[in-house]
Each structure stands twice: as structure tokens, then as C-alpha cells.
Amino acid sequence: MAPSPAAPARSLRRQLLVGILVPIGLFVVMDTFSLYRQALGAVNIAYDRTLLASAKAIGELLEVDGEGPQAQIHAKIPYSALEPFEADNRSRMAYRVSDAKGQWIDGAQDLPTWTGTLPNQGPYAALVDFYDDQFRGDPVRVAVLLQPVASGRGRAMATVQVAETLELRHTLARQILLDTLQRQALLISVITLAVLIVVHRVTQPVRRLSLRLSQRNEDDLTPIAAPDLPLEIRPLSDATNQVMLRLQHLLDHQKRFVRDAAHQLRTPLAVLKVQVQSALRGDISAQDALAEIQVTVDRATVLANQMLSLAKVEQLRQQQDLSSMDFADAVRAVALDVSPLMADKDLDFELIAQPCPVLAHDWMLRELVRNVLHNAIRHTPPQGQLTIHIRPEQGMAQLLIRDSGPGITEDLRLRLFQPFASGHAGSGSGLGLTIAREIVVALGGTITLHNRLQGQAITGLDACVRLPLTPDT
């Protein structure tokens, strides 16, 4: 199955700009619509007030004769009465006066009669209503005033309608819209410029850091020093520094491994070459030469295996592939594997094991026990005593291996965990305890060596390994 293509890289600057400007743009659009509606409403209220004033002026010019059904309303209204209320020649006004029954009295007879009802509440303290209609093919705004007419000769109720065409209102609304759009466009431009400047300044430390990293040498894994990075990006730089430290540690380990391997394998190979040449010249018998060669090959094999084990410990440390397992099971399995060595020296062996679950890798536990136990068997004299005791103690799994060997000096105890540091010349490669220490450190534990004293005499060596128990233990 072919791998899915990687997602294209997205620009941080573009994401910031889109994430900031798109919501602001949407808000500005909604705000523009809201402002336009509010301004248009204010314009309508202002012009409706003019229409109401026109209707009131006309109502004041009405006269009445009689009362009730016999009342006759008279109107003598010159057209000039509307001139004070006409804003300019872009709008036209017309009026109609009717009685309570809707009968035409004066004005434009073809202005549609009002058939609506008065609103319960309105912006004006009068018997007035406003509505939109058509007059002579043009849309108009109409104000209707129910005007009481009273005189010495009678009383009646008149209906005064004043209509105005909408050209001026539409012109003013367009102007308001254009002004609003211009202001909002200016606002968006200012916000965009500010965002561009801020984003550029905020991302500048990241660009400088990228430039410095691209100019580094291939083997330069020193931590990143970028104190000017924003706080939100500091975790990324800290995590990068941790990765680089681990890579540096791994690189140093590989260099040290190659250096040590080259140094340590050179000697057995040189010895092997001399032995082969000596055998070819006939300096010793073939049987003796093969025996010497076998000893040299065995030592080189042990050395190579231990160096590979040391490299594997570092590999497992990087993988962190740990699971819960019983330390006591690993001790019993290794003790069974090396039992022929203990039988060969006729050792008095005792194993006391209690369950001790720890987070570890099976190979690491077995290799740890094998190296420490081999070291104890090697230095225990024939028919000596060897005891292994593993038990939980104070949240730790404690492995105590007690031999009856000669012990170690204080100077040797301080350097015995160093690579190729052996207690006795020719007794080993000097890597066993180094491997054990590396495994213990990788698992978060400790390992110590102490002489066991009886009075002033050394009766043996105690190797103590302590590993953390699993949290649910």
C-alpha cells in the first residue's frame, strides 16, 4: 500500500492573517449592515417628522360647520403651504384631506385613501400613522393624521394624508451607505496593516532561528539559544533542545563505542596473528597452537558480545519500550542458565526470591543479572558460598548478590564501573559491570558494591541492585 502524500506545509504567517482578518472582516460586514440600517431608520424618522409637521400645518387650516353626521369640513389650503417642508426639487409632496367617512375634501383626489389602523404606541404623541404606498406610479411615504377640527360653528374629525416621493431618501441612504463603506474600508486597511506589522515582528525571532539552524554544521548539536522567542514557541525550542541532547548523547556513545572497539579488538587480533604466524613457522606444535588460538578467539568473542550488549543497552534506552515484569523471574532464569558454572566450582548456592514487578525490558533484566552474577561466580573460590536474595523494600526491588571472594579495594570500587576496568588482570574484559551500571541507570535504579566485614577481615563482596517497583505495587 503506497504511503499517503504528506500534507502541504502551511504558513504560520498566513494562518495568523487569515485567523485574524477573516473574523474581523465578517464583523465589519455585519457592523456595516447594522450601521446602515440604523442610519436609514434615523433618516426615515427625521423625514417622517417633516411629513407630520406638514400634516399638522394642513390640519390647522381646516374649518368645520355643524356637528355629527351633518358636519361639513372646509379646506382652503394653498399649495404654498407645503413649500416650507420640501427639502429640494428632488422630492415631490401631495396631500389629501378626507372626512371621517373617507370622503374627499381637498388635495389630490387620486391619492389612495388610508385604510389602516393607528399603532398602539409610536414615536409621536399624536393620532398619526406612517406607511409606504404608490402614488401616480411612484413609491411614496405617507403620513396620516387624524385631526380634530373645532370652531364656533361646529366640531368634526378630519383625516389628513401627506405623501412624499422617496428620491431624496434614497439619495441620502446611498450617501450614508457609501460613507459607511468608505469608513469601514479604511478601518479594515488600518487593521490589516497593523496585523501585518505585528505578525512580521512576532515571527521575526522564528525566522532568525531558522536561519541560524540552516547555517549550522552537520555535527553541531548544541542547544538552541533563542531568548527572544515568544512564550508560546518556547516549548517547541525546549523540546528541540532535549531531542538534540539525546542525539548528542547517542552520537557520543557511538563515537566512544567505535573508539573502544577499535582499541580493544586490536589486541586480540594482533595476538591471534602472532599465534598463527608462530604456528606456520612451526615454533610450537599444531595442537598447542590451536589451543592458544582457541583461547584468544574465546576472549575476543566475549569482548565483542559484551560490546554489542553495551550498544544494545543504549538502543533500548532510546526506544523506552518498557513493560511490567517480575524481576525475580529473570533472576531465577539466569541462575538456572549459569548453574553449570556454579556446579563446576562446587559452590554453596542459595536463592531467596520474592515477587518484584518492575518496568523494564526482559533482555535488560537478564543481562543485568547475568553480568553481576558472572562477576560474583568468577571471584568466589571453589566450594565457597554464594547467596542471591531479591525482595521488595521501600518501594524498590532490591537484588542482593553476596559472594565469598576477596572483596575489592576502595580505589578499585570507585573505578570498577568504568569501561575495561577489571579487578584482576586477565580475568575478564572489564565490561560486565559497566553494562550492569548502564542498564540500572536506564531503568532509574542504583547499583553499589560493598565489602562484607567480620571484624577487620573481608569475608566477601555484596553487590546491591535497586530498581523502582511498578507504581501499582
Roughly how much helix do the residues carry, as a percent range? 40-55%
Radius of gyration: 51 Å
Morphology: rod-shaped
Order of helices and strands: HEEEEEEEHHHEHHEEHEEHHEE
Provide a count of the helices: 9
**Structural class of the secondary structure composition?**
alpha+beta
Describe this structure in words.
With 473 residues, the protein is of the alpha+beta class. Helix content is 49%, strand content 22%. The protein is built from nine helices and 14 strands. The strands form three sheets. Strands 1, 2, 3, 4, 5, 6 and 7 form a seven-stranded mixed β-sheet that branches. Strand 3 and strand 4 form a beta hairpin. The longest helix is centred in the first third of the chain and has 48 residues, at 12-59. The two termini are 44 Å apart. The model has no long low-confidence stretch (mean pLDDT 80).
Topology:
Elements: H1 12-59, E1 62-67, E2 72-75, E3 93-99, E4 104-107, E5 128-135, E6 138-151, E7 154-165, H2 167-214, H3 234-281, H4 286-319, E8 323-326, H5 327-337, H6 339-344, E9 348-353, E10 357-360, H7 362-379, E11 385-393, E12 396-402, H8 410-415, H9 432-442, E13 446-454, E14 457-468
Helix pairs in contact: 1-2, 3-4, 4-9, 5-7, 7-9
